[in-house]
User: Fold this.
Amino acid sequence: MTASLVRSYPERGGDSLYAPQPARILRAKQLTDLERMIELQLTNGRELGHRPGQFVQVSVFGYGEAPISICSSPAKKGSFEMTVRNMGGLTSALHRAKEGDTIGIRGPFGNGFPMSCMQGMDCLMVAGGIGMAPLRSVIDTVLADRDKYGQLIVLYGSRTPGDILFTDEIEAWKADKRNQILVAVDREAPGWDGHVGVVTTLFPQVKVNPKGVAASLCGPPVMYRFVLAELHAMRVPENQIFLSLERRMKCGMGKCGHCQIDGRCVCIDGPVFTAEEARGIHESI
Amino acid sequence: MGQKAVLDAANVAAWVGGIRAKTSVMAPVKRGRASSAFSWIDDVSDLQLDYVRTVLSPKQAFLPAREPLMTVHRESLQVTPALATEPFVLLGIHPCDLTAVNQLDWSMLKRHNIEDPFYRARRQAATIVALDCMPDKYCFCTSVGSCATREGADVFMTPIPDGYLVEALTRKGSALLEGARLRNPSREEEAAADAFPERKRRRTILKIAAEAADLPALFERTYDSEIWEHTAKRCYSCGTCTNVCPTCFCFDVRELADLTLETASRWRQYDSCQFTDFALVAGGHNFRGDRPDRVRHRWFRKFVYLNREHGQPFCVGCGRCSQQCTAGISLVDVINSVIAEAKEKVA
Assistant:
């Protein structure tokens, strides 16, 4: 019953919605014990053409596919980056992959963070753990066009000092007076003289006009409820709060059903929702 | 097209045999003592058109339980997509299952404006012959608007004494009937066919106690109901209900490397929202780790979420999930408990 059509990685769309495009690993950098940043270039020479907060489906021969957020800004040309936490077969294969190796990419998928809603506003980023990776694509987009945005405030909660991602870049962000960068770790640790506590304990240091702030959130599910309570107490309007939801995803095209919550497919309608939308969606947070 | 003719029972085998000589045919056949299944037909005498319900639905013609998506070659990373392109005839599907095909068309081809290429290839290759039927105690097509569906069929057959009244609904259907020995219907035969839908409606005993359009609002009132807890206490999370459902389309994607590690094939296969790991993400967080949440998701997805989005419940009243449920859970009993509780809450 089946006839096969042989062709090399075809154009996106049409028959090839499920076929990955090859991408070469340009550079890889170990960020922490568990996280590695991989810089990729599509071998057809095209830009990925993503928006901050979007994700791709990453293929590794023999392992299959997994959804991974893009952590670089579209302002970065010629390549894109993703941060991979070593959690299973496919991600550990990505940790073993070498520069020059080729992997497969489908996407970008999802809506991404609405940068246009952030322009002219103070931008508050609240990140928990590896949630920092997608938010880095937003932060870098703000920094690439710095004058279009107000103050940049980053609240970043990490379990231990050793888990903090992008440490060099965080120092660089701090150098600009228009940026307020606050990092917290969950518990006291040797050599750590920064803030100790969960990410919400950083909120007392934030002074913003709630009408003029756009908040972007990405972190573990448990983080959202507490951060939303803080933002609510600050009287930040719900339609100025953007949160990125993580879900299991197989196709990225609203077909496989895994990421459906209420009437939405997180891969198509999300992963970014306003707090107002999320409140009306069963099982969102 | 649209012309009514009679295909006598004695001429069915010759007609199907003629089709089978030219193309593949999937049709109901007898399985075991009391069961039927959709199967690719080799021997026309296997055909069983007077079946009530197959265990697995004819959705397998368009969404096989497992199908290859592509082969990936390790060295070149070349991808060979697997696409079904050969024409085939899907014969003898009931109006409920035909409705399900229309719903799958929406979810796989129209939803989000994205066409699934594998579904499209199979769907375009198909000619569909629908066949009207009489209900048993599990059927409730009259409650979900699927009992008289003709849309999507190329040929429609209505049982009459000693044969079928057949109508070609499309050009493809006319072509398919060209090889059949047909004759003009008598006035009695036309009357029997005309009366069939009403007889079917009268004989459908099982009913949902509300209009399908009202179900989303009624269900919403029971989101936190104990019904889900009670139903989950009986459910085994075995996934039978979603496997046999003609409208369920969720799938998992797996990659299998061959033993030489030269190629790997990527497959998709039915998945079930009732399985524990359906909403599990890397790092161990499970968004629907509790069984009551999964049970509720199934009912809400069918009668609220997709119902609102598509304007029709994603259930066609075929009765398969209730008949096959390993725990004896009746879909309609649960719906009617929801309706009763929702109405009580308002009163």
Summary: Helices of chain A lie at 89-96, 115-118, 132-144, 167-174, 221-233, 266-269, 275-279. The two ends of chain A are 45 Å apart (CA to CA). Residues 14-109 of chain A form a domain with the Elongation Factor Tu (Ef-tu); domain 3 fold (CATH 2.40.30.10).
